[in-house]
Amino acid sequence: MARQDLPDEDRILFRAATADAAPLPPPATHHFRHPAPAARPAFRAADEAEALAEACSGRMEEFALPDHGRGDELVFARPGVQRRLLRRLGRGQYRIDGELDLHGLTVPQAHAQVNALLRQPGDHRPRVVRIVHGKGLRSRQGRPVIKPHLDRWLTHAEAVLAFCSAPPHDGGTGALYVLLRRCRRLK
């Protein structure tokens, strides 16, 4: 029998019987199974652990890195990133959402700053960041110290889609424009 088919007398009796009733709280949810861990590439954890140990040891200057002398431009793009996008990035045609200045930092301090930027959740992470690393004009070696490390860190960071040296008016070879990946939430 549908609700509309009830006689008036039954409706009155039902309302009288349930007048002091309160709604039940929602049932508590019980999760008996733990969600499966997110898939990670097999060697990524080992690589990250090695990089972290290297950064914390303070020995990073001892490692042989490519010599990016003054005037060398850095350019990187993941496979699938369009050349047009990289050209526009290098010309400064994208809005800069954030900036990271690494001047005066040691290599481990700079590494920690870069990691903090890259570990931000994808939906809160800036899309294009200008990272100022300097040209090494005042370094003891007379060449960039952080720049070659930054090249390696960003190339290996999954969050980085592309980067290139900034135009002269925005730091030139002493700064990078970095295009970061944005994570999309699944609905």
Beta-strand percentage range: 5-15%
* Strand tally: 5
- What's the overall average pLDDT, rounded? 77
Overall shape: it is elongated
Using the CA coordinates, give the radius of gyration. 28 Å
How would you spell out the order of helices and strands? HHEHEHEHEE
Main pleated-sheet profile: 5 strands, mixed
| Span of the ends, CA to CA | 39 Å
| Protein structure class | alpha+beta
SS field, number of helical segments: 5
Low-confidence stretches are: 55-71
Strand order, biggest sheet?
A: 1-4-5-3-2
Question: How much helicity do the residues have?
Answer: 25-40%
CATH fold category name of the domain at 74-180: Ribosomal Protein S8, Chain: A, domain 1
Task: Note down, in words, how this protein is organized.
By secondary structure, the protein is α+β, with helices and mostly antiparallel strands. The chain has a domain of 107 residues: 2-Layer Sandwich (Ribosomal Protein S8, Chain: A, domain 1). Helix content is 29%, strand content 13%. It contains 5 helices and 5 strands, in the order ααβαβαβαββ. Strands 1-4-5-3-2 form a 5-stranded mixed beta sheet, with helices on both faces. α4 links the parallel β2 and β3. α4 runs parallel beside α5. The chain starts with 7 loop residues before the first helix and ends in a 7-residue tail after the last strand. The relative contact order is 0.16. About 9% of the residues have low confidence.
Give a concise summary.
The chain has 187 residues and is of the alpha+beta class. The chain has helices at residues 8-17, 44-57, 83-90, 107-118, 146-156; strands spanning 75-77, 98-101, 128-132, 160-165, 175-180. It is 29% helix and 13% strand.
